[in-house]
Amino acid sequence: MFTQGRIRVIALAVADALCIVAMWAFVVCGYWALGRFLRTHGWPTCPWGGYELAEYLRFFYVALAFICVNAALGLYHGNWMYPSAPSSPVEEFRRLCISSLLTHAGAIAYIAFAYQTTEGMLSRAVCVYACILTALGAQSFRNWMRFALKRMNVGQIPVVMAGGGEAAHQFAAFLDGDPYAGIRIVGYFAGTERIGRKRRRRAWNERDFQDRKIAYLGTLRDIVPQSKKRDIKMLVACQDDRLFRAQMDEFTSWFTYVVYLPAAKAFPVFGARAVSFDGIGGLEMVNQVRMKVKRFQKRVIDGLLAFAAFVVFLPAFVVMPVLIKLTSRGPVFYRHRRLGRNGREFYIWKFRSMYIDADRRLKDILASNPSAAKEWESSFKLSHDPRVTPLGRLLRKTSLDELPQLFNVFTGDMALIGPRPIVDEEVGYYGSSYRAFSSVRPGITGLWQVSGRSDTDYARRVALDSYYVLNWSLWLDLWILLRTAFAVLLMRGAR
Where in the chain is CATH 3.40.50.720? Predict the structure, then answer.
């Protein structure tokens, strides 16, 4: 059972070692090259780069320390000896940042105590820069390793699944296309044998499992015997609560890990912790959106980051209006009515990326093209939109058209990071989730934008927006911000 899991743990440890070695090599060589350049071009007393590169070879132990700290923080699928499901990407990012900080703080302390001077051959600045780069880059190295493991079909922890329903369907679909979890479904159990009949009643999504080449292993009564036969010690239960409780004692007689997915609906899990009251076990879920201090922190951080972004992209605010005016008739900016916090209406600002007769063009194509009308009805977007100008396509691909929304952040109508702003016609898609969705300010970027952007279907967008609201944290915002940078640079999913 745990052979594949341990292969995965070793592979992730190798990725961590490669990351920290690469970041140290980059910083050490860059610091040394910059110092040598300045020393030979008018700054002979430059303190940077005054060391031999070989001096840092003795710091190989930093990679070992990083791996050890990661193991202590549960970054190798919880328990490196008995690996199971991984932490969420946001939680993994948070722990990697903490691990990098602890590891490099130890390195700085070693330099201070070992050399007893601030004027040595070793630079504390190298440790600081390497710490930042390692924290920001470690998850990317891990994701590359996960992708390689998925392609080679190794390091995938085998599990069996009990039950069916929407949760089982979404879980199987997620594992099929995403290398992050590192879990492979060997087979599933569903239904019970009916007395006096040979026919078996199975899960509603049996065909979906068969299409994914997931074998049917038997009824719910066969779970433990068949899992023992295959030496599989991890179970994913997508059952009704009563069925799950009825079989819990049976499950614990064999399985080392039991993952319970009761429903395909978002609920607060970030920051959740196990609680116990006189032998009654439970889960405390934290809704940070309801904490005024946290909301104030987010407002301040959003404002500071938006101002920094405005300063960085100030040249675009000068160049873009000129290019828009030269390439098509019409105003520079486009505004559209959206729903904000608590359903309050506001106008969102963008650089104009469409022709001025865009509404007429949309009506014409929806009336003459049934496939386009169906696509518009499902996502309110068109993959080949005739309303968009040639420059507008570039603006959308690079997301530069959304830069004016920084002013919406300054006025308090939007946040830098949050659920996507919607129009009146989209409220119905959110159903009972709209009340929670509208309790926060919409954002320029958000969880759905970094999870495929325009490539995600509408149901998935609603699920991601609901998850963001219920699981918001400053760490989640930072993770989304970094993912946004990668998504924009790669122009992934934008149109």
Answer: 157-264
What six digits make up the tokens of 226? 């068949």
Six-digit token string for 363:
């009506």
Kindly report the three-state secondary structure assignment for every residue of 158-204: EEEEEECCHHHHHHHHHHHHCCCCCEEEEEEECCCECCCCCCECCCC
The torsion angles phi and psi of 225, rounded to 5 degrees, stand at -60, -45
Give, rounded to a whole angstrom, the gap between the first and last alpha carbons of the chain: 44
The overall average pLDDT reported for the chain is 82
* Chain centre to alpha carbon of residue 164: 26
Single-letter code of the amino acid located at 235: L
Question: Does 200 have pLDDT greater than 50?
Answer: no
What is the average pLDDT across 245-263? 84
Beta bridge partners of 335: 349
- What's the pTM? 0.83
Question: 11 falls in which pLDDT band (50, 70, 90)?
Answer: very high
CATH hierarchy code of domain 157-264: 3.40.50.720
The residue with greater pLDDT, 228 or 53, is 228
User: Which two tokens mark 209?
Assistant: 């499992």
CB distance 232 to 218 below 8 Å = no
Residues 64-71 have a mean pLDDT of 94
Q: Identify which of 426, 428, 408 has the alpha carbon closest to the alpha carbon of residue 418.
A: 408
Cβ contact 316:399 at 8 Å: no
- The rounded distance, in Å, linking the Cα atoms of 168 and 397 is 34
Answer for the pair 308, 289: CB distance below 8 angstroms, yes or no: no
Angstrom distance (rounded) from CA 463 to CA 416: 20
